[in-house]
Design brief:
Strand content: 5-15%
CATH superfamily: NAD(P)-binding Rossmann-like Domain
CATH class: Alpha Beta
Strand order of the largest sheet: 5-4-3-6-7-8-11
Number of domains: 1
Structural class: alpha/beta
Helix content: 40-55%
Radius of gyration: 19 Å
Number of helices: 11
Distance between the termini: 21 Å
Mean pLDDT: 75
CATH architecture: 3-Layer(aba) Sandwich
CATH topology: Rossmann fold
Length: 347
Amino acid sequence: MTEPTDQANGRLEGSDRANRSAGRDADGQTAPVASFGPDGSDAFSGPDGSVAPDGASGQAGSAAPDGSSVPDGSSGAGRRPPYRPVAGPGWALITGGAVGIGRAFAWELARRGFDLVLASRDADALAAVAAELHQRYGRQVEVLPTDLADRRDTLALAARLEDQTRPIDLLVNNAGFGLHASLVDLDLELHARAIEVMAVAPLILQAAAARAMRARGHGAIVNVTSSSAVLTAGDYSAIKSFATINTESLAVELAGSGVAVMAVLPGWVQTEFHRRAGLKANNFPSWLGRAVWIPAAKLAAEALYDLGRGKVLSVPTGRWNFAVWLARVVPRRAIRAVSGALTKSRT
């Protein structure tokens, strides 16, 4: 897999690009932005207001993923808070941080000045990523071999999140795997494992992070769910739907606490995750493949941009944003038909 580079902040697509570059939601309204720092300050901008590693300082003219200027909202009655770039110094903990989307978040956050705690089952891959990031960006990287299917490992990771002597400023709940087992299988152990890894473990970890961050008055929690949350593709869709609604509910509970909460609903991302799931570009017409597949680095950069805008739901790229919106408004029988067709397309 090609490693994420500084080209991650690629161009946004369609009308969504114009709205994002102006700091607006899809309906054209200025987006509210959460306060990450104590007393409403921006804990993710550089020290003393210095420019963050991605060239954005949180002031007027700070850079969006497409390089455009984001207004600071400092003038005019009724203006909402400014776009605040997600940038270090600080510590971020990423589950599933050795490969795929988690690895892309690790590279992007290291580039922005964060030190990292990476958790994954693959100890060798963790060590390799840690060495790469330290060599490239000089960041501290703590590695924690962790199996989130084992409740003891999850609780140990939760304890790390609540350690106020080594505070975590940003949690990215990303670990997961594809689930295409039948709902009527005699052995449902794989379903139980998926629920533990992608529903129960994130619930435990976000609760630990929220308690610690709320006590400090700042922080951010990002749960990577899936665009499958709006489909009916087996237990995977059900689990991701739970994760998405759970994230929105947590955002409601933590409103005004200084802790930002956001769910990321990726479409089809160019990682080994979808290759293992049997989704390949050659399963579809070439024009469709080019339209739907997203580079992992682009997804991570756009998600962090949305976090800086204070969004609660992030669907990176305009095409997938439209697809998720459409799935929410069309009749459910159409969603069931599309879900069945996608399931049959897998090898």
